[in-house]
Design goal:
Strand order of the largest sheet: 1-2
Helix content: 55-70%
Largest sheet: 2 strands, antiparallel
Strand content: 5-15%
Structural class: mainly alpha
Distance between the termini: 70 Å
């Protein structure tokens, strides 16, 4: 049977009318990870925003300085937390003004300064981190101990595949930031 031009046109039109494949965001892992990160960050921020007036970038600065043994640059904080440098800069300015962090001279390069917690900042960090660990436990309560280990291992594999630093010791050893 010979095809007419109208048959071909009808089939082409039918093909155009078929639903196009689309990205289902709720199954797309990057979307899911981003959404989870935003939600968890927001849930944790209640601990330091309502009680201490800190926003998320300010907490990221305090948290980064709190887990380190020595001072570090704002650039390190920006890269470590994956937060834009201008956002970290504004947080640093506010925290300096509040007396929670201070600048110290970089011994290796006197043109550069590094940041560290003040006594007041260290006390705030020491008060907050147990509360945040408790909140983390509440968030992860839906997982068994084995599932938590698996989640941690799987996240580690993804981080490794993206060549992300996974520990503070590794960051210090590589002077990665």
């Amino acid at each position: 049977m010979a095809r007419t031009s109208s048959d071909i046109a009808l089939k082409a039109r039918a093909a155009d009318e078929r639903p196009k494949p689309r990205l289902d965001l709720f199954r797309f892992v990057p979307f899911r990870l981003n959404r989870l990160a935003a939600e968890v960050s927001s849930a944790l921020s209640v601990e330091y925003q309502e009680r201490h007036g800190l926003d998320i970038p300010a907490w990221r600065v305090i948290a980064t300085l709190g887990f380190r043994n020595d001072a570090c640059s704002a650039q390190y904080i920006s890269q470590c937390t994956r937060t834009h440098k201008s956002t970290i800069s504004r947080a640093v300015t506010a925290l300096l003004s509040d007396g929670l962090i201070e600048r110290v001279e970089n011994e290796a390069d006197r043109r550069e300064f590094r940041l560290q917690l003040t006594k007041k900042g260290r006390a705030l960090y020491e008060e907050l981190f147990p509360q945040l660990l408790r909140r983390e436990d509440e968030i992860l309560a839906c997982l068994s101990a084995q599932e938590r280990k698996q989640l941690s291992a799987l996240l580690g594999k993804i981080e490794q595949s993206l060549d992300l630093i996974q520990t503070s010791e590794e960051a210090d050893a590589k002077q990665a930031y």
